[in-house]
Specification:
With 267 residues, the protein is α/β, with parallel strands linked by helices. It is built from eleven helices and eight strands. The protein has two domains: 230 residues, Alpha-Beta Barrel (TIM Barrel), CATH 3.20.20.60; 29 residues, no CATH class. The chain has an eight-stranded parallel barrel with strand order 1-2-3-4-5-6-7-8, surrounded by six helices. The radius of gyration is 20 Å and the shape is globular. The structure holds 3-methyl-2-oxobutanoic acid. The site of 3-methyl-2-oxobutanoic acid has 12 residues, from strand 6.
């Protein structure tokens, strides 16, 4: 039987060069399936606002929504380590609300850790949350909650000056006590430099193969998100046409009177 994955496993995996496989997940049945496949870490990402709720970006996502989805994932009793995203405005305004909201994702949601976006600017927040014994995953580079500052979803850390800033951010995050960091949308060589510099695990998305692990949004790898498919996504299934065919067949059966049959009925 697969054992429960804890924060200690990620340090070991980095030290032993074992890559860490992470996917986002937002619901009970999918959490059960992906846990059965042996995923190391499940991220209940605020990407739920885009791929499930249909928003254009993650900014509208609320704490209530994050707790709801985290609870649903935890009902599958996954062996994987579950991290829940702190949504926009739940940790930026003051340390007290950051601590309270991180606590709620653990206490009500059942997550084992929280993730927040930012580098040196959130070091104090990371310290405040880790001081409560809540593990924190940081997230630097292309940080979707900073969409308006970045002027869109653009690759970050391209020049040497920007690269140096991101390296300094990564070091500040590690010093503040984060157990891991997501590197999103940065050049692969920079991701390699950060990964070599840090003793905590780096999890890449659009950051190339030199990170300690990788994360992708589940709906992207399953072909369920038709809006936009970034270059860094690898699609492992094309479920939209399969769902289209199933739903169309159901409609045709109902309209044509071929469903339900006697065998679907009670006597
Ligand atoms: O919300 C999310 O899904 C994320 C990943 C893309 C890293 O933050």
């Amino acid at each position: 039987m697969q054992k429960k994955i804890t924060i200690l496993d990620f340090q070991r995996m980095k030290a032993e060069g074992e890559k860490i496989a992470v996917l986002t997940c937002y619901d009970f049945p999918t959490a059960g399936i992906m846990d059965g496949c042996g995923i190391d870490m499940i991220l209940v990402g605020d990407s739920v606002g885009v791929v499930v709720a249909g928003h254009d970006n993650t900014l509208p996502v609320t704490m209530e929504e994050m707790i709801y989805h985290t609870k649903a994932v935890l009902r599958a009793r996954p062996k994987a380590f579950v991290v829940a995203d702190l949504p926009f405005l739940s940790y930026q305004t003051d340390l007290t609300s950051a601590r309270m909201n991180a606590g709620l994702l653990i206490k009500d949601g059942g997550a084992a850790a929280v993730k927040l976006e930012g580098g040196a600017n959130v070091a104090e927040t990371i310290r405040a949350i880790t001081d409560m014994d809540i593990p924190v995953m940081a997230h630097i580079g292309l940080t979707p909650q900073s969409l308006h500052r970045m002027g869109g979803f653009k690759v970050q850390g391209k020049g040497e000056e920007q690269a140096e800033k991101l390296i300094a951010d990564a070091i500040a995050i590690e010093r503040a006590g984060a157990f891991s960091v997501v590197l999103e949308g940065i050049p692969m060589s920079l991701a390699g430099r950060i990964t070599a510099e840090l003793s905590i695990a780096t999890i890449g998305i659009g950051a190339g193969p030199l990170c300690d692990g990788q994360v992708l949004v589940l709906h992207d790898i399953l072909g369920l998100c038709s809006k936009y498919s970034p270059k860094f996504v690898k699609r492992y299934a094309d479920l939209a046409p399969i769902i289209t065919e199933a739903v169309s067949s159901y409609i045709a059966d109902v309209k044509g009177g071929t469903f339900p049959e006697e065998r679907h009925s009670f006597k």
